[in-house]
Each structure stands twice: as C-alpha cells, then as structure tokens.
Amino acid sequence: MDKTTVRMQQIALQTLANGEVDVILGWKKGDEWYDSYPVVINDINETAELIWDAFCVNNLSKYLITELKKNLRIGVFLKGCDSLAFNQLVIDNRIDSERVVIFGLPCPGMIDPQKVKHAGLNKGLLKVERTGDKIVFITKEGVKEYIGRSFDYDKCLNCRCPNPVVSKYMLSDAVTRTDEEQYFPDVTEIEKMPLEARYDYWTKQFSKCIKCYACRNICPLCSCETCVFDNIAAGVSSKADADCEQQFFHIIRAYHVAGRCVDCGECSRVCPVGIPLEKLNRKIIKDINQLYGDYTADTDIAKSPPLGTYKVDDFDPFDGSKQGGKK
Amino acid sequence: MSLKLEEKAISSKQQFEPLIVAFCCNWCSYAGADLAGTSRLNYPANIKIIKVPCSCRVSPNFVLRAFQRGADGVIIAGCHPGDCHYSTGNYFTRRRFTLFANLLEYVGIEREKFKIEWISAAEGNKFATVMNEMLDSINKLGPSRKLRDGRWIRQQ
Amino acid sequence: MSCNCQKNVDSLIPQVAVIDSIRKETADVATFRIITPAGGKSFDFLPGQCAMISIPPIGEAIFSITSSPTEQRFLEFSIKKCGSVTECLHSMEIGSEVGIRGPYGNHFPVNDVLRGRDLLFIAGGIGLAPLRSVINYIMDNRRDYGTVDIIYGARSPEDLVHQEDIMNFWPKQINTKVHLTVDRAVDGWSGHVGFVPSYIKELGLANNKVALVCGPPIMIKLGLQALEQVGFKREQIYTTLELKMKCGVGKCGRCNIGDKYVCKDGPVFRCDELQQLPDEY
Amino acid sequence: MKQVYKRDLERLWQTISEHFELYLPLEQDGKVNFMPWKQGENVNIDRLKTDLSPKNIIFPPTETYLKFRTVNKRLCFESVGGKNDKYVVFGMRPCDAASYSILDKVFLQEPIDRFYEERRTNGIIISLACSEPEETCFCSSFGIAADNPVLGTDIAAWDIGESILWQPKSEKGKKLTGILDNILQDTSEHEIIALERLQQSIREKLAQLPWVDLDLEIISNNMKEMFESKVWEELSKSCLGCGVCTFVCPTCHCFDIQDFGAERNGERFRCWDSCMYSDFTRMAHGNPRKTQTERFRQRFMHKLVYFLNNNGVYACVGCGRCVEKCPVNMNIVKVIKKLGGD
Amino acid sequence: MPRIGAFVCWCGTNIAGTVDIEQVVQAVSEMSGIVYVKDYQYMCSEVGQNLVKTAIKEWQLERVIIASCSPRMHENTFRKAAKAAGLNPYLVEVANIREHCSWVHKNKEEATKKAIALIRAAVAKASLNTELIAKEIDVENRALVIGGGIAGIQTALDIAEAGYQVDVIEKSPSIGGKMAQIDKTFPTLDCSACILTPKMVDVASHPNINLYTYSEIESVNGFVGNFEVTIKQKARSVNLEKCTGCGICTEKCPSRKSKSEFDEGLRTRGAIYTPFPQAVPNVPVIDREHCLKFNTGKCGICEKLCPAGAIEFGQEDVLVTKKYGAVVVATGFDIIDLDKFGEYQYQNHPDVLTSLEFERLTNAAGPTAGKFIRPSNNKRPEKVVFIQCVGSRDVSSRGKSYCSKICCMYTAKQAMLIKDKYPDIEVYVFYIDVRTPGKNFDEFQRRAVEEYGVNYIKGMVGKIFPAGDKLIVHGVDSFTGDTLKIEADMVVLAAAAQAKPDAEVLGRKLAISTDTNNFFTEAHPKLRPVETHSAGIYLAGACQGPKDIPETVAQAGAAAAKVIGLLSKRKLVSNPCVSVVNEDLCNGCLSCLKICPYDAIAAKELATNNHGITSKRIVAKVNEALCQGCGGCTVACRPGAIDLKGFTNKQITAEVDALCH
C-alpha cells in the first residue's frame, strides 16, 4: 500500500482513538479506478478504508462548514490548494480553526480521468498509482508506466501551492516544483484579443451554462448560507436561459470571489459544459496582484483582503484630472 | 431557446438615442449636478441620475442591471478620493470598480460604456463636461446590445 | 394595440379575471371575489379544489376556492398575506385584473362518501377557507347530508374569518352547530377559550361522523390525535394539504409526498392514505 | 432495411436540412452536444454519449409560454411557446431515445402539455446503436438494448463501418425514409451479416462493462421503508447540492415557472429546476425538505420508486452522465448498490 | 401597490418653461400606483404644501412624489408637510426635474420625456419605501470656529456669550485678520484697530473661548452634533505660557531679511516676531525658514536673552483631537496676485501699490509711522491715481468675473483720507461703475467727489509707463472719449478679492462644497445663507463671498445664532436611513465590519442547536446610532444580508428598471 495512505490510516486511527478529533474528513475508494470520494467517518474501523491516491481531487475544507455544526472537533486531510481555501474560510469566519486538526498532504498533482480516457488507457483499467511524476496504470492485461504530468488536470499544471500552508501533522515530504512559473499566460492571451472577439468568446462560453451551479457549490469559498442567486427575494436570481442572465451570474460569481479565490481551479474542473471559469478568477487575481500588491488568498490570515481595505494612494484609473473641471 | 433573441437591427445612427444611467453620490456629485443646473450648464437629456448616499453604495449588480435593461452607458460619480462625506467610502468604490471595470473590459465591454468619475459639489462644469463627453463616446460606439436582456421591452 | 389573447389552449395558460369585490376578514386575510371580464365565474369545480391566481409580473400562487360550487356568479378566495403574490393581491383595487387557471386537484367526496353522513368540520385560522366551500355546498344540498358540526378556532376573535357565516348564517341552518374557540381569553369574548384539539375532546361528539380537517400543520397533527383519542378512525378523517406548487398539473415535480402530487392527487387526502406516505409535508 | 454510405452522410444531412431542422452531435471546444446543424460544422458521431443529454430538444432549458400585456389597465394573456417547425435528430443513443419515452409519461399524461406535445410530434428521432458502450454505461439494467434502438425511436440505425444501416420504426420514420430515397441505398446479405456481427460485438462489450450486473430487483419497492432507510444520510454526506446530475440527466424533468418583465409588458417562462436545490420546495413559511439529505433522497426515490409506482418504469436509462459529471463521484449506481444492501 | 400621489411643481417658469407640465401630469397619472396627480406653480409655497397635506388625507395617500427642484433644496419641506398630514416623512420621494432637467436641457420635448422618466423612477422607488423612524443622538456641547478674523471673532464671542464653549483656530500667529491691517473703516472713518482690538482681547480673556493660534485643521470626522476634529498646532518655538511678551527677542533677533506679512511686505521683521504690537496672543513665533539657529545651528540669541526662558527650539507640531457639536468656517479672503496685470507695473515699480499696502502706508503704526510718502523716494506724492476693478468683473481668464463689492467704498475712503490730510494732492479714481449700495455709502462716496474734489473718471487705464520718477497713467475717459495721460507719483490698485487658496482643501476635509470661484457654498442663496449642505457646519464672512465689515459681522452673528440653536438641543434626530442586517442570510463573514468607517458594525453571537451540538453562529449587527448610512457595507455583503434603509437594493434596482422603462 501507498506509504502516505498507510500514514493516513494510522493518524486517523490514532486521533480518533485518543479523542483528539470526533470525526475525520477523508477519501475512500469506490469500485472504479477514478472513484475517490469524500467521506466523513467517526468509526475507527473505517479508518482502514481511507485512501490517498491521484484522484483525491475533492477539497474537503468546504465540508468543515456543515460538519463543524454537528461535531466538536474534526480532523481533515488537506492538500496544498485545499489548505489555502481553509485559510480563506477562516478569514471569512466560516469555520473555527481551533476545532480543526489538519493533516497536510503535499500533492504531486491529480489525474484527470478524461485525459486517461482520451489516451485510450481506460479500457480494463483497474488501478492507477502515482509516485511523484511516475504513473502506473494497472489493467487486467498488465502494467503500463508513464513518467510526466501529461495526465494531470490542467489546473494542477498551473499549481502554485502543492504543499499545505497550514497543518498539524504533515503526512509526507514536501513536493518540490522546478517548473518555471509563467505569469498568467491564459489571462494575457484573452486580454490580447480584440474587444469584440473577447465579447464573442465570453458570450459563447457563458451561453453554454446550464445553471447547474456546480462551479459555485464546489467552490470552497462560495460558502454563503443562502447564495444571493438562490434567494428569490434578492431579485437577482433568475433561472432563465438567456445570455444576459448567464453573463450576470458569471460576472457576479467571479466578482464575489474577488480577493478570496485561491485559484484551485475546481470551478472549471466540475463545469459540465467546459466554461473556463478560472480565467475570470485569474484575471481578477492578476489585477489585484498588479494593483494592490501580491495578494493570493492566502497564506497569511492576518492580512486584510484586498476588497476589505484600501490605500489612500491606490492606483486611480478614474482620476479625471485630464478632463473638464474647474477653470 | 426562444429567449436568445436575434439582435434587432437598429437601422440608422440618427435614431440612436442612448440612455445613460448615472449613479451620483448625494454629497458631491449629486450636488455637482445641482450646481450644473443652477449654473444653467447644458448636458444631454440622455443622462438620468439616480441618487445614492455614497458611491460605495453602488453595487456591481446595479451596473449590470442597468445594462441588461437597456442602458447604453453607466457612470458612477462620487466625491474625489479623500473627500468622501463618509471619509472612506469612495476608496472602496475605487478598488471595487477598478477590478470590476477591468473585468467588464475583459469580457468585452467597452471602457467607454462604464465609467467612474470623481465630481465634487463645486464641479458643476465638470459634471456637464463629463456627461457631454460620455454621450459623445457612446454615440461614437453606436448602438450595441451587449449585456442587454432581449426580453426587456423599452417603452421609451 | 389590439389583444388576441384568450385562446385558452394549454393547461398553464391563465384566463383573465376581474376582482369584483374585496372583503377584509382579518388584519392580514381578505376574501377576493373574482369573476370573468364578462361576468360570471371562470369555471366549475368541486369543493376542496384549488386554482392558480396570476399577478404578472410577480408570479402565480395556488389557493383553495372558498366559495361553494353552487355559487354561479363568482369564485371566492380567502387569502392571507404571506409572500410576494399575496402581498400584491392585497394591495390591489376592485376592478383590477388578474389571471386565473384551474380548477386543480381532487375534492372532498361530497357526492359519495359524505352523502347521508353526519359531518364534523374542524378548522383553524385561514384553514376554514377550503372547508367553507364544502359547508356551503352542503347547506345548499342540506337534505343529502346528516348533522353538521363545525369546530373553528383562531388565535383571537379578530382572527376568525368569515364572521357572517360562522356567527349568523351557519348556526341558523337546521341540524348545524358551530363551535368557536380562541386561543387566549380576551375582553368581549364570551365563547370558548382553548386550542382546537382540546376543544374536540371537550365537546364529546359522537365518533360515527366523517371529519374534515384543515388548518396549520400543528393543528392538523394534534387534531388528528384528538380525533383518534375520541374514537375516530383514520378512514373517517379527511384533510387538505399545502406544499410549494408551480404547475398545478402534476408535472413540475415539487409538491410530491412520496409518489403522490398534492396538486393532482391531493390536496384532499384521507388520513389513512396519508399515513402510508412518507412523512415529508 | 436501407443504408447510407458514410461518404454520402454530408449529402444526407444537406437533404434533411432542406426539409427539416436538423440536430446533430456537434463538437465545440472538446464537448459534443446536439445542436442545429449548418454546413461546415464539426459533426462527431463517434462520441455518441453527448456531454449533455438531448432532452433540451423536447424540453428546452427555458421556454417562454406566455406573454402578458396591460393595455389601458386591462390585462391580456397570449399563449406562445411550443414548436411548429419539423425537425430531425440524427445519432441519438438508444438510451437517450428511450428517455424521450420516459418524459412522454410525464408530459403527455393528462392534462397534456401542449408545448411538449408539439415538439414530440414534430420531431423524427434517428437513433444509432451504441457501437462502443462506455464504462459508465448501465443501460442494460433498465432493459434498454444498446444494440437495437427501439424506444422513442423513429428510425433505428447502426454504424457498420463503411455505411450506416437505416431501419424505419414508425410512420414518421418511413416518411423521412421516403424523402431520402435517392441517398439511401438498399442493403444486401453482406450488410445484414455485418449488422449481426456488430450487434453481437455490442452485446459482448456490454457484458464486459463494470456494472453489467447492476440489478434493480435488489431494491425494495416498499416506499415507506425505502424512504426511512438509514443509507440516505451517509450517501448524501458528500453531496454539494449542485444540479449537475439533474441537468445532464435525460429523464429529470422538474421545472420552475417564473415571470419576467414589467407591469405593462412581460412574459412567463418555465425553466429547468433541480430538486437538489435548497430553494426547490422552500415556501414563505417553511420547507418540507430542509437538509441536503432530504433533497438527495427525493431525487433517487423519485427515479427508483415514485416514478416506477406511477408509470411502471424507472426514471433512469443508465446513460451514466451523472456518473461522469458529479463533482464528488456520487451517483445513482452507488445509490442502487447501497439500497440493495451493498 | 401603495396609493401614490404625485405633485408636479412648475417652479414658475423655471420648470414649466422647459417641461410640458400637462404632458407630465398625463403620463404620471397612468403610472401604476398613482391615484392622484396635481400640478401647481409653487409647490413649496404654503398653498402648495397645503395641497399636499390635503391630498394625503383626502386620497388616503400612502406615498407622495414631489416633482420639483433638487431634494437638497426642499425634500425636508415636503417631508415636514407629509408628517403634518400624518404620513411618515420617509414615504416622500422627490424627483429632481429642475436642477437635473429643466435647467440643463433646452429641448422641451426631451426635457419633458426626461422629467417623466425621473418621476417614474421616483414612483418605482417610493412604492418600495417603508416607514422610517428617526432616532435621537447626543450633541457635543462645544463649537469650533475656523478663522480668527473679525468674522471668527464675532462668531466666537456671540457663541461664548450664550454660554457655550468655543474653540477658535487661527492659522497665523495672531487673531485679527484683515481688519487688523486696515487703517480706517468706511463710512464712519473710525479707526479699525480701535474697534477691533478690544474684541480681540475679549476673545483671549473669555472663559468660554479657547484659542488655537498658529494652528490648522488636520482632519475632520463625524457628523452634526458629533464632529471629531484633529487640530495641528504648529511648533511656535515659543512657550505660550511662559512668554511675557516683553519683546526683547524680537528686537534683538539678528535676522532682518523677512518681510512683514502684516505690513504687506512694506517693512522687514525678525525671524522671531510678533506680527503686530496688539497681537493676540502677544507671544512671538519663530519663522524657522529664516531663523539662523534653525538654518545654521548657530545664534540662539533669543533663547539666551529671554528672561522667561520661553524659547523652545525643540518644539514640535502637536495634534489635538477634540469633539464639537458644530463648526463655523470663517476663513476670510485674500486679494489676487497681480502677476498677470503687467500693464500696471505693480511688479516693477515700488510706487504702484495695492489698496491693502496703501492701508499700511497710511496707518500711524505702519512702516512709515503714518507719514504719507512714496516708497521709492520717501517724498510726498503730488498726484495719486486709484484704479478700481483690477481683476474684478473681469471675464478674461486672468481675473475674476464677480464684483469684489468692497473696492468702491474703500477707494473712496482712501481718496478722501488723502485729500483730508493733504488737500493739495491731486487724486484721480478710474472706475467702471461706482457701486455704493449700503447705509450711508452713497453719501460717503459723494462727499469724496463733492467735498474733497476727488477726480472720478469713468474709464479704463490701458497702461502705466514709468518715466523718470513719475508714472504716466494712460487712460480713457469714456464719457468724453478723451485719451488721458496723468503723470502720477503713486498708483493704488483695487485688486480683486478672492477665496483663500486652500479653501478647497479645507472644504474637502469638512465635506462642504465650494463654488466655481472657490468660495464656500451656502445651503440656499436666499433662505439658508449661513448654512452649508453639511448639517452642523456654518459659514461666516468673506469665505462665502466678498463682504464688508458690517455684513461680515452680521453673518457672524447669524452663524452664531445657528450654532447656539443647534447646541441648545441636547439631542438631535438622527438619519434613519441606516444599514440593517437580515440575520437569516448573514454568514458572519464580517466583510461589512472591515469597511465600515464608523465602527458601526459589530459581531453578534447567535447560539444554534443542531443535532444536539450547540454551535455559535456569528452575525453582523449594526449600531444604528453610529451608522451614518453610506451603504458601503451593502456592497461588501455577498449574500445581500445587509441592506440600507431608504436606499435598499430593491429600491435602487427599481429605479434602474424605471429609468430603462
């Protein structure tokens, strides 16, 4: 068994047994190779079913919001990006970090089952094992090995935080990344498009939306008790399949996570129609970084969120000194 | 998908009567607009003002709503940074709408269609100038149905 | 602009109707009398059935019809202010137009089960609305039914609706008794004080009647218990339910209790049938 | 039995589109979905399991069905909606076609939904047998034959390599076949053998699928017992309450009705809704389904019990879209297994 | 839909001239909810207000729309009227169809359409209005007067006499202002210092007055009744308490290069100086820019000589923060810079003076000890030319378009004073018009002409040429058309009065507006001449526009009366348009708290019981006494749990929809 999985099961057993936590948030394996799914367990007998593999993509920190209402102390397994979300939830007062024990999981990247499928590797596939960048496909017929990150989710290829920024127990050695970091190439690409092309691009993307709200519900930071789009009385919710409604939803969704988005890419991952939502979020992150200093929501929970503060000498694109005014 | 109405062609530019919704803060820009009035300065009737206590009361929701419902331009006018009646409101306006304006541009909305201006209570001239200029630039852009809700029928 | 409306071809399309009169019942309940623009009632129905009332562009809401099917001139709805549609209705003036579609759902078995039987009506607050339709239907066909007892309660005397019926009209009918109660004693109220369920037990009525119950969920729940305590079987009891509804025709999928749709298979349920359904209402 | 050579497909589509609106599985940005076809579009008939189900053709995500106006304080209603244009859908999977027959049970039941009925009447469905069932498929559990499209099908079709075999199943199908007479070719013994071989191969592939043994019989049909089962709490724990499963599902059909507009002028539309949403049953004075567990239970009870009780079939065709799309890997297969005591 | 009544004001022809009232009334009557429409010539008049009151009762109106001038003008008037008729005042909405419509548009059709749109928006908003009840807030029992000239002095004395504490802030080292510089006052010709200095002393000695000289406003926060002002006391370098005012330091200071501000640069002063002998406080200040000690580190003579040990080189600026219930702005005026008026040779010739310099020149305590001599050669001039309207009533960009109002009178005064002392001096006055409205003013000017023989010439001076020790004044007599050349020994320019250069900065700090000329704007030019649009802030004196002394003193008294009226209330009615939290929707993220400028939002703990586990839920809570209603929190709130009464999300959205009708 995978070393980290062993460590995971041990620590879960230990903390449940010694009463350090009441429940554990982790992943279990389903019947299929790609099926690692989130679970909440409180039975020490179940700890042996917990697993860590390249499909534990779900961020468990969002479950803390509901589970902390029912349980006193919770142990949770968090990857790098998950831990950023955890911190942001603490900043947003959505969870009480005192009651959470974090088991940190340095993450080499998660595998996209669709990429496996497109490579034709899914037939008869039983299991996929990953150690660093070595990926082993175990099928009925035999074993295939790949080196590299060609099966990683796109979002993992852009990962800027493979190691948890907060944890009580770290379950494995830190992952080191040597990839050269590029500065928001995806955003720049869209920025360079002519305005009309941009409008057409986004309108087409948004028009694909079926309003399933998976992007919102998977987002660790879209954590409102009642989302404004679910509240008819707020007057912004409309389920109509009209371009303007889609535009409204997606622009406001992106704006609502402005300064809080941890760029985990989950919104894009779960979108059933393939809207590149992260490109909206990342545009805002890029602007915030450029205008208000490097803010990536974040490692430092003491820092004020960019839209919760200001500087007197902030960049002012609206300074009308060039125009009109007094004589 | 009956709602995704085909764009109604607007036959000629002469008929284009843009609508500009201006959110003005009560203390500076609304007073600036009043001063433009008392000074009998001219600006186009296309500009229609909504009074808000402070520019920081204006939500991006309102801006998008205006575009949806047929506004050709939206402008938020507030006190000059540093002069806010509520001392810091417009600093937040500035940050919020710097990001929001960038985001709108990113999804393909012309800068000219959404503006923020700092107009003090003394700047009746500036108010009129800004409004005249805004209308000019909207006129130059011509009619557009970006962000528009095809279902909303304007009675004019 | 000319109007080419009113080719009412689909179940979701409302007809235009006019508010003919508004009778204030309590602080937040009023009875709206609705007729077609040409006069007369919009459709025939049976007691217990509902109709959707539309107020564009606010929306639609479903209400039980409170007038008797025997009333040919109009439909009546007693409506409590709670939510955007009802708020708007309450602010409307006589002569305003609304949309109406229906009738929807099943009805109380006035033509079979209830015939010849002694009847017990139990209502709380606005819950009298659907039962009033049955009671007045029975009053208009009085000889087909046995005795009628009506237990009706509300929080205070001011919250009793249809005062003309409960105070004057019904008590004057043959073999008909009205038992009123209010939750708390107040000056000027000489009648019974106490909750409806306990009043059921106090009254000591014969248990060979058919009971029709409608009111707030808690009253229904405790009322059923009280009836069972005095010897009623669930088969003898009917109630009507209310859930969020949109289409009214059993398709939109939100008013189900188990495999039954309240809008189509209800709103009237016999209590033994209800017991078979999942407890989700 | 007729056939159309693959080299003639473009001509076939062209001809169909001269008489009908034509829906084909089109590929855009890596996603394949049924959309109205125009010349030059990227048709993908190999990836038959479209990302979204084709239910939007007969049950649009949003349908305006009523317009209202106030003229001189008088209210006017005008019924709009429905569809009068005749159309053809080519290349639907047997499971998706079967889903139409399931939706029929809802919308064609009294009182008949006119808008739906118009769409159904005006459409001709050409259903293509599944040459390559996917791992997430479990249609056979619902009695759907991936090798032999029947339910909801006007014309059954099989891709045998060089050509596509074509067999009308309904009057509408026959009529269309007549129109396409000069493109469709007769078949010979050779093609019949190829068809049998294909069907055999499909059945073999189906037998290899992970969930071939998924048995619905294991689920109790006692509604109350099922409703009160303890498994819902556990199954629903990871559910995030989004509507992906509902909206990709070919049989989910819950809808909402909303008004849009101003007093003088506006419209009423219905649109897809999901029982997974927290506001689905929320009323001013309460909500009978307060927790996600209750909402989760509703969706599966509806598909596996209530719908069966009312209509004699399950509200699922085993297409597996929910399996692929669920962000947290929760799906009906797990529910069925768990309810069966797994 | 509530029952709405709409009242359309003609404002005489102000609105009716550009907006077709009949058409508006017709359109409004068709709007939903409208049950009553009335138009009237002057809705704000008593008759107009009564129309509103009567209609509210007769038509059971639940909302009132007034389509009239700016709500900043008369919203309160109509709210009061509604209240008098039993309607909650916050159920009134004003559609601004004058300032925002009839006055800025010319095309009647367009203006009419816009007026209808604005009224529609007001109707849409009003139908969502709710009854709001104002709360009471405490009033801080102290006033602040900014400026220590005659306006500030008079205001402070009047307020102090009424028994309230007053702080006076003066930027320069002494109070007194312009009036202290003036020699004599018109039309009575009494000595300016003689009437001012006693008041200055009164200010210094009044138990209720606290002076901050050599101080400036750093920042202003708060609101009416509760202003919080931070005052910067600049380092004086002399201890105010210890100094006895003996004057040794100022005498012995070796630095003599600085020009005396008080004497308009006509003489020099030491680096340590008292602006003028009667200064209050009579304590010198060190001008650090010119002080040797500060520039070279050497010297320190004053420190050594000071018998009281009051010299403190180490002093630093001190910030003091205090609370005030009311603020009076009395910052006065300046005269314009004459850089751009090269033709008058002001920059080049010492005998071309401004009127204010002339005042110092003729003052007995002035640089010449009152001897009337030419600065160039210390000889008595024989011909003096006065030029009026230098930069006043000047529409070219170098001057001011307004009349400076005081020049005609002081020029007459100065001319008369010369002739009175030296009847042989020829005095000429070039003027555009002579404007002398005021008690005994015209008589005064006529005396200058008739009794003293001052030559008044209606006409302009084109240019002045220096020739030898003379100044040749080239002018035109516009009555005769003759070109005049006057060989003058001295020319006195009546330079225009202008707003203080830093008025705008101060205005921003106080959140009060300035007009196009940078004078502070009064709330209403006729009816609220001493109030500003910011409640609790008042104006006195020339900071609001050029004024003579009696007018200034009158306005100061008026401002004081307003302040006294305000401070005499223990409680003020607060703005009920405050934020409110819907606890069901609130996540407790407290984004609102982070941006609230008034600390009006706090976290509140709700205990919830879920499955037996008691968990605490945080929600935001608004302190209504502190909330000023900016609404910033509403936008920070993602789920829309916090809303602003009077400007709710729904109301603003309804306005947007209505404008896009």
Summarize this structure as a short list of keywords or feature phrases:
heteropentamer, B: 156 residues, alpha/beta, Rossmann fold, 4-stranded parallel β-sheet, 4 strands, 35% helix, globular, C: 281 residues, Elongation Factor Tu (Ef-tu), domain 3, 7-stranded mixed β-sheet, 19% helix, disordered N terminus
Describe the structure.
By secondary structure, chain A is of the alpha/beta class. Chain A has helices spanning about 5-15, 65-70, 80-90, 115-120, 155, 185-190, 195-205, 215-220, 245-255, 265-270, 280-290; strands at about 25-30, 35-40, 75-80, 100-105, 125-130, 135-140, 145, 170. Chain A is about 30% helix and about 15% strand. In chain A, strands 2-1-3-4-8 form a 5-stranded mixed sheet, sandwiched between helices. In chain A, strands 5-6-7 form a 3-stranded antiparallel sheet, with no helix packed on it. Chain A is globular and about 60 Å long. The termini of chain A are far apart. Chain C is an alpha/beta fold and about 280 residues long. In chain C, about 20% of the residues lie in helices and about 30% in strands. A 7-stranded mixed sheet of chain C has the order 10-9-8-7-11-12-15, with helices on both faces. A 6-stranded antiparallel sheet of chain C has the order 4-3-6-1-2-5. The model of chain D has no long low-confidence stretch (mean pLDDT about 90). Chain D has about 350 residues and is α+β, with helices and mostly antiparallel strands. Helix content of chain D is about 35%, strand content about 20%. Chain D has helices spanning about 10-20, 55-60, 95-105, 115-120, 170-180, 190-210, 225, 230-235, 245-250, 290-310, 320-325, 330-340; strands spanning about 1-5, 20-30, 30-35, 60-70, 75-80, 85-90, 125-130, 155-160, 165-170, 185, 255-260, 265-270. Chain E has about 650 residues and is of the alpha/beta class. In chain E, helix 3 packs across helix 4 (about 70-85). The model of chain E has no long low-confidence stretch (mean pLDDT about 90). Chains B and E meet through helix 1, strand 2, helix 2, helix 3 and helix 4 of B and helix 4, helix 5, helix 6, helix 16 and helix 19 of E.
SSE topology:
The complex is a heteropentamer of chains A (327), B (156), C (281), D (342) and E (661).
Chain B: E1 20-25, H1 29-38, E2 47-52, H2 60-68, E3 73-78, H3 89-106, E4 114-118, H4 124-141
Parallel strand pairs in B: 1-2, 1-3, 3-4
Chain D: E1 2-5, H1 9-19, E2 21-28, E3 31-36, H2 55-58, E4 62-71, E5 74-79, E6 87-92, H3 94-107, H4 114-122, E7 123-128, E8 155-159, E9 163-168, H5 171-179, E10 185-186, H6 189-208, H7 223-227, H8 231-236, H9 244-248, E11 255-262, E12 265-272, H10 292-311, H11 321-325, H12 332-339
Parallel strand pairs in D: 2-6, 6-7, 7-8
Antiparallel strand pairs in D: 1-9, 1-10, 2-3, 4-5, 4-12, 8-9, 11-12
Chain E: E1 4-9, H1 13-16, H2 21-29, E2 34-40, H3 46-58, E3 63-68, H4 71-84, E4 92-96, H5 98-102, H6 108-126, E5 136-138, E6 142-146, H7 150-161, E7 165-169, H8 177-181, H9 192-205, E8 209-212, E9 215-223, E10 226-233, H10 248-252, E11 258-259, E12 268-269, E13 272-273, E14 285-286, H11 292-296, H12 301-305, E15 318-324, E16 326-329, E17 333-335, E18 352-354, H13 355-362, E19 383-390, H14 407-421, E20 426-431, H15 441-450, E21 455-458, E22 461-467, E23 470-476, E24 483-488, E25 490-495, E26 497-499, H16 503-510, E27 537-539, H17 549-567, E28 571-573, E29 579-581, H18 591-595, E30 601-610, E31 613-622, H19 632-636, E32 642-644, H20 649-659
Parallel strand pairs in E: 1-2, 1-3, 3-4, 6-7, 6-16, 7-8, 16-27, 18-25, 19-20, 19-25, 20-21
Antiparallel strand pairs in E: 5-28, 9-10, 10-15, 11-12, 13-14, 17-26, 22-23, 23-24, 29-32, 30-31
Helix pairs in contact in E: 2-6, 3-4, 6-20, 7-9, 7-17, 14-15
